[in-house]
Fold Signaling lymphocytic activation molecule.
Amino acid sequence: MGCSVCLWLVVSFCRVWGMGRGTRETVLGTLGKATVLWIPQEFQDLTQRFGVAVWKRDTEDPHSKDVLLKYLDGNYTNYNPSQNRFHSSNFSLEILSTKRQDQRLYEYITSKDTEEKVWQIQLEVYEPVSDPDIQVLSWALANDSCTVTLNCTAARGDNVSYSWAGLEASTSSPCAHNGSLLHLSYHLNATSLACACTASNPVSSSAVTFNSSACSFEQRGSARPGPNLVLAVAVPIAVVLIFVGVFTAIHTGQLRKHAPFAEDSEVHTIYSQVQRVEKQKIPCSPPGTEHPSCTTIYAAATGLPPDTAQAPGRIRHSPRAEPPTPQGRSPLSQSPDAEPTTVYASVTLPMI
């Protein structure tokens, strides 16, 4: 009873791993590229002897399979020629453009009468690794030594692993490390120190080099700081600029509010002194005139108004004459190059 159970378990285990029907191998496929499913020479010889072969693929349903191709005595039928290509010279199957859904278990079966041979291929699909990028997370200078923390990352790729190594291929190199992060410390005079980061997965790999001179004073700005350092520098500068802008706007508004309105200096009207005087000994007009009474005289002037103390009659403008200054008032002024103005001269009324 116990031996029967053990034998049944062994047979079941062999069937699960394909040992009961054939041998399984793993093939790595690159996403978007062609993948060839090869069969060993033994199965090629059996196919030529039997003359019958079938390519199949597992589906999501464990009880069904997709038939991809049938071969019979030198002729074959490809059921999906847009995706697969059959090579009759070695009976291999080529997937033209590998997709993620192609990651399945494939079977190549050749048989004759009651004899059947199965070759199983497990296809694993990977996206290739893109070029990695090295970012300086932190750095510090102390005692002529530079200490940096580097992070190596690749933007694309499946199951990516990272490793660091020195270009001098020495096992004692400070660059030797497995993982994306590298804590590196070296003397500033070690200008020849260079570390290479390699990003790889089962189907591809790519490398990039970090030069130790990136920590020197001359090239300190060439190393890309981490996001925390950028924020620590950019945020205070932005706050200061905002405060300066607000203060300037408020101060400018106050100056405009209290500033007097500009006066129009193009045209000015100047009014001279008007006063009532006593009876004049000299008549207001020379004898023989038709109008003996005093009149108001209007004079056109381009400078200051005439002196009101002149004798009545026609007044000629003198450029050097200055108007009288009434008590309690400031004298009126006018720029020499101002436009012509109207001046009202003195008016003297006669005594009755």
